[in-house]
Amino acid sequence: MEYIKAFIVGGLICVVGQIILDNTKLTPAHILVSFVTAGVILGGLGLYKPIVKFAGAGATVPIVGFGNALAEGAIEGVKKNGIIGAFTGGITAAAGGIAAAILFGYIMALVFKPKTKN
C-alpha cells in the first residue's frame, strides 16, 4: 500500500507540473522554481509534513520535497544556531541533493543540447 500512496502523490505532483507546462508559456525552469518555493512555504508552515507522512518517497523525491527539506533545515538551524542558522541550516540539510543536482545537471548538459521553449 505504501508504494501505491507514493505513486499517487508523486504522480499528482508531476501531473500538476505537466498541466502547467502544457497550458502556459512557463518554461521548466519557472516550474522548477515555483515547486521549490511551494515546498519551502508548505514546509515552513508545517503543511507538507502530513503529506510526507502519508506518501513517503512520493512526497520527498519530487522537487517540492527538496524545498521542504530546505525549510526544515532552516528551522532546525535556527533552533541550534540562532538567526545565522536560517541561512546555513537549509543548505546543510539539502547538501546531498544539491551536490547530486549539480553533478547530474552537468552530465546532462554534456550529453544533450538544451533548447528554449517557443
From TrEMBL:
Q: Which Pfam families match?
A: SpoVAC_SpoVAEB
**Domain of life of the native organism:** Bacteria
Keywords of the record, alphabetical order, are:
Membrane, Transmembrane, Transmembrane helix
The answer on whether this UniProt entry bears the keyword Cytoplasm reads no
Q: So which residues are the signal peptide here? A: none
Please list every transmembrane segment annotated in the UniProt record, as residue ranges: 6-22, 29-48, 54-71, 83-112
Name the UniProt record assigns to this protein: Stage V sporulation protein AE
